[in-house]
Amino acid sequence: MSAIPIVAPSDDPPSSTPTSPSTTTTKNVPPKPASKSSSANAKRLCRNVIIHGFCKFEDKGCEFNHDTNNNKSVAQPSPESKTSVRLVSPARANTLPTSIVSSVSADSVNAPVFVPKSVSDNPVPLRTGTPMSAPVQPETPIESSESDGHVQDPNIMPTLTHSFSQFDLSPAIPPNFQPPMPQDMMNMMPPGAVDPYFYMNHGYPRQPLQYHLYTSALPHVANLHPHQRSIQSFFIPDHLREQLTRRNEAILATPPAGHDNLPQEVHVYHSLCPLEDQPGQFFGHPSWVYKATCSVDGRTYALVRIEGFRLVNEMAMSVIENWRHTRHCNIISIREAFTSRAFGDSSLIFTYDYHPCSVTLYNAHFTPQAQAALLAQLQAMGSNNALMPETTLWSYITQISSALKAVHGSGLASRNIEPNKILLTGKNRLRISCSGIMDVLQYDGGQNVARYQQEDLLSFGKLVIALACNSLQSVHNLPQSFEFISRYYSPDLKNLVLFLLSKPLPTKTIDEAITLIGPRILHEINCSQYYSDALESELSKELENGRLVRLLSKLGFINERPEFDMDPRWSETGDRYIIKLFRDYVFHQVDENGVPVVDMAHVLTCLNKLDAGIDEKIMLMSRDEQSCLIVSYKEIKNCISAAFNDISSGRK
């Protein structure tokens, strides 16, 4: 017998909606006694009603309260809006029970949209340009869907959709609106608290890497015999490990607090992180530098943004193609240039290779902190003046000359030989940045390239004087600066500066400058080769460590697999038993008092012999000291290979 739906009482007047009850013929079933949990749940508002506005299990045994009119947290409707709105399609108005039908006041059609508190405190810039205080516009009616027994109101459902959307913000959202919530929902979090798991353009706090916890070699073990080695000799030095770790941490850095207004994506780049606290000036144009990840290749790049610049001549972007073909070890390569309105204005974006933990020459040598650090370093070496060592200065001159040689040879001009445009990316390692920007900002079709190349040589000479005198103001008093250079540096440096600052007759080239620094180039090449040999030596150590890691991984896969404990084919007999005893021989040795022996040299020696598979024999003893085995490293290696092949092939 089909049950006749029972119509729930309504708030409508008796004249508009009859309330004559209908009954159904059912068997006499004794009522079940109400439990305490049922009575408590009957007072609690159903969450389906809170989220969806209805509950399709109301007539199927749902024990929660479905009457939204008795909820104290919901605002009482005004007398003018007492008439409830029935949201039922005409085709099913006589078949659906009243409990499924939403009874929402007519004023809720124009109700404002829910905004999370963390978003309302820091409003996100709108994408449509509509002000935040714009009045709420009714949404476009949507056809009611009858699938799964859900009836959608053409006016209410768009509002509900935006209410639970965290990222698709409507332009008509009031900035400080807080919707009323039921009492049961308000107990989940204290008022005014921000959910710590809510994510909206905020980077999770990252703890710094503990690279400073590594210890260096002790003084009393520094002078060892030729056949002795310290434990630090098996791994890379502390300063190199710290440098590489800092770079990895800089690549994974997230935007700090206060930079939530950055766009989610600019062209094909996302996860923008500013590298400057304040905007810079690029020949009168405000500029920003960001770190971003490319969605095409997944690599990290540096974006230089020229704020508020409108490109007049489209041919100016063709200069970037010439710079892309200029590849040099002392020039930061440019990848592309494009215009974007992702920041809310007309911005010009240049994409360069990213070198983490790099600083400009200005920050490295001309700030008070840098000069104090240089003075302390030189005093530790026995020098009382704060002058830059001449070998370091010649290294800088050689690298900049090599970069200018490549640029001028390509028919271009650098136009950025300045302390704040040259980066120091490593130990005395220079790279010229911001290449090609001036060619786009002041595009002239390449008519003044020769004049710009002469200006590069003049800027090069001024930079050398500033580095030698350790002051940017030294270029304004050339006679005193030349006297200073003549007193503390070699005549070759003075001759180079005189050539770079002299007037061209008719022109001077970078090749002539390279001729003056020719004898110094050999010393720079010699230092570079030594540094390359040192890095290769450290790389060979890590190569050996990688070999040992692979061997330890095989031992970890084989020893004491819990899923094979009761399997006689994987019991600790035969080859696997030998592997277990060898593991105890390497890692679980104890002294005569039963104290564990932690000897890294013993571990590395045994693993190296095992990986080589030598014929040297060792004695393995069981844990109960009742049995002993004498085997060679070659036999143990064969046992490990056989056991690992069984696991990798799926055999037991």
Structure explained in plain terms:
By secondary structure, the chain is α+β, with helices and mostly antiparallel strands. The protein is flat and about 95 Å long. The protein has 19 helices and 14 strands. The two termini are 61 Å apart. Strands 3, 4, 5, 6, 7, 8 and 9 form a 7-stranded antiparallel sheet that branches. Strands 10-11-12 form a 3-stranded antiparallel sheet. Strands 1-2 form a two-stranded antiparallel ribbon. The protein folds into 3 domains: 36-186, no CATH class; 265-516, Transferase(Phosphotransferase), domain 1, CATH 1.10.510.10; 542-648, Helix Hairpins (Orthogonal Bundle). Helix 18 (600-612) crosses helix 19 (633-648). A hairpin with a 2-residue loop joins strand 5 (280-282) and strand 6 (285-294). It has helices at residues 36-42, 47-52, 117-121, 157-163, 183-186, 238-251, 318-324, 361-366, 368-380, 390-409, 437-441, 449-469, 478-488, 491-501, 510-516, 518-558, 575-587, 600-612, 633-648; strands spanning 85-86, 103-104, 265-266, 269-274, 280-282, 285-294, 300-306, 334-340, 347-353, 359-360, 422-426, 429-432, 617-621, 628-632.
Secondary structure topology:
Blueprint: H1 36-42, H2 47-52, E1 85-86, E2 103-104, H3 117-121, H4 157-163, H5 183-186, H6 238-251, E3 265-266, E4 269-274, E5 280-282, E6 285-294, E7 300-306, H7 318-324, E8 334-340, E9 347-353, E10 359-360, H8 361-366, H9 368-380, H10 390-409, E11 422-426, E12 429-432, H11 437-441, H12 449-469, H13 478-488, H14 491-501, H15 510-516, H16 518-558, H17 575-587, H18 600-612, E13 617-621, E14 628-632, H19 633-648
Antiparallel strand pairs: 1-2, 3-4, 4-6, 5-6, 6-7, 7-9, 8-9, 10-11, 11-12, 13-14
